[in-house]
Amino acid sequence: MTERAKRRRFTAEYKLRILREVERCKVPGAIGALLRREGLYSSHLTSWRRERDRGAEAALVAKKRGPKKKAVDPRVKLLERENARLKRRLGRVELMLDIQKKASEMLGIPLSHPDKDENA
User: In this structure, is residue 7 part of a structural domain?
Assistant: First the structure.
């Protein structure tokens, strides 16, 4: 089984050096010789020039691959905080209800159940 070829990664410095060399080429065929010597394609030059023109050296740095991280919507953060606050409050209310039930049992006070309709 043959080993799979790895994708070449070019540094910003390398890209700039090659672009400068290409700009210095005046003799017909010199650019082709440079590309053969470096093992590059003319499409590399095209995309590197476009990147350079768009954003100078910052654009020449390799782009990260893979899925992009989703920015968290500020409303989501607000709702998550409110949800946590309401859960804490619910826990306190349930604790208070348990205490009231135990106190009413100890004192013999009957509790009315909200499930049962008293008017029926």
Answer: no
What span, in angstroms and rounded, lies between the C-alpha atoms of 20 and 42?
14
Closest to 18 (Cα-Cα) out of 4, 47, 116, 76: 47
HSE toward the beta carbon, residue 112, CA cutoff 13 A: 5
Alpha-carbon gap, residue 49 to 34, rounded angstroms: 16
Assess if residue 2 is contained within a domain. no
Q: How many residues does the chain have?
A: 120
Count of the separate structural domains present in the chain: 2
- Amino acid (1-letter code) at residue 44: H
pLDDT, tens digit, 9 for 90 and up, residues 50-98: 888 877 656 566 677 788 777 778 899 899 999 999 999 999 999 999 9
